[in-house]
Here is the input.
Amino acid sequence: MPVQPWTDEDALMEKVNNTTSGLGGTVWCADMDRAYRLADRFESGTVWINSFGKPLPQAFFAGRKESGLGGEQGEQGLVSFCNIKVIHQYKGDVGRLVKS
Here is the structure.
């Protein structure tokens, strides 16, 4: 696990996001507000705070950039296995409204 000391959040995020991959990352920080602020700026599909990669089956797991599109697990992950159908029913008699 690479650890980088830092003092400036903007400079840190420039380093963190300067990559073609974006599967996951971790923020280790005692200040939870700051940790969430940094996690929100990660260009990755998953960010753990004060923990390491432990994907949960009920949580959506996805990547960004060259780490992939879409994801798996969780309710959102199940959507990729669904066949969506949209059926429209108009309240008015559309057939009578159209003049030939």
About this structure: The beta strands are 21-22, 24-27, 46-49, 61-62, 64-65, 71-72.
